[in-house]
Design goal:
alpha+beta, Structural Genomics Hypothetical 15.5 Kd Protein In mrcA-pckA Intergenic Region, Chain A, Pseudouridine synthase, 6 helices, 17 strands, globular
Length: about 300
């Protein structure tokens, strides 16, 4: 069995039960499994073992150690990568749609992590655990675009701190169903995991995590709109869920009501990423050209 360590710093969740907090932040684990891990003494809050009903508080430091039965063993694989930037601290990747970021049940190989292990000769940070080396943030399997990866632990901590403080600037492009009338929009609806389907994220006015996304119209079509999205927070599926909530699901996003015969995946692309370099302490920006299938989609919609 492989032991995976995860650490969390509580922000502003208030008096939420520990087991509910972990269910929100460890969506791959069932509520029953989370309770087992806590009762086994594998969860520590501020260095002490606690009970599942412990009420977490702002600034609590939570550490979790999970033994993953049959966890996939990461193997370096010679998979081509489009590299936007690389130095001794970080590597910035233009991830293609269809590539899973790290191995998991159902996707044990051919992931971005497998490709990175081969390219860097296993020189990736260890803070993501054995399954997620170097991974500071993620893009969904079918989202294309810019991702930054840490090569060592100090770089990982520096990057993770920026993501927590929302000082990283991320800009996405999406093509959505319907014609958006306003040139600009803003959505601040809290989001969280659905209790009925843990893989799905929903708007949760009560009990959800704060989430904020700005939208700007790039181009309108007869029955669709090309938009720019700038998420301030980085919640799972945030852009997809906020757009669906506003009534404009992303084309091809069958999970959130954007079924379409125009494109075979959700039309979402991470175009730009800006952050402070962990060693140089300078702001740096990387841009990825719009993915080919989304360019074809836009051409088709114009016609």
């Amino acid at each position: 069995m492989t032991a995976i360590k995860r650490e969390f710093k509580v922000q502003d969740e208030g008096a939420v039960r520990l087991d509910l907090f972990l269910a929100e932040n460890l969506p791959d684990l069932s509520r029953t499994r989370i309770k087992e891990v806590i009762l086994a003494g594998r969860v520590w809050v501020n260095g002490k073992s606690v009970k599942p009903h412990y009420k977490i508080r702002p600034d609590d430091a939570i550490a979790v150690e999970i033994e993953e039965k049959g966890a996939p063993e990461n193997r370096p694989e010679d998979i081509p990568l489009r590299i936007l930037h690389e130095d001794q601290d970080i590597i910035v990747i233009d991830k293609p749609a269809g590539m899973v970021v790290h191995p998991a049940c159902g996707n044990p190989e051919h992931t971005l992590v497998n490709a990175l292990l081969y390219h860097t000769r296993n020189e990736l940070s260890s803070l993501g655990g054995g399954v997620r080396p170097g991974i500071v943030h993620r893009l969904d399997k079918n989202t294309s675009g810019v991702m930054v990866v840490a090569k060592h632990d100090a770089a990982h901590r520096h990057l993770a701190r920026q993501f927590r403080k929302h000082s990283v600037v991320k800009i996405y492009e999406a093509v959505v169903k319907g014609v958006i009338q306003h040139d600009e929009m803003k959505c601040e609806e809290p989001v969280g995991r659905s209790f009925l389907n843990r893989k799905k994220v929903v708007v949760k006015p009560s009990g959800g995590k704060d989430a904020c996304t700005y939208f700007r119209v790039i181009e309108r079509f007869p029955n669709a709109t090309h938009v720019e999205a700038r998420p301030v927070t980085g919640r799972t599926h945030q852009v997809r869920v906020h757009l669906a909530y506003l009534g404009y699901p992303i084309l091809g996003d069958t999970f959130y009501g954007g079924e379409s015969g125009w494109i075979s995946r959700h039309a979402l692309h991470a175009r730009m990423l800006e952050l402070e370099h962990p060693a140089l302490k300078q702001r740096m920006r990387w841009v990825s050209d719009l993915a080919g299938d989304m360019k074809q989609l836009i051409v088709a919609l114009r016609k």
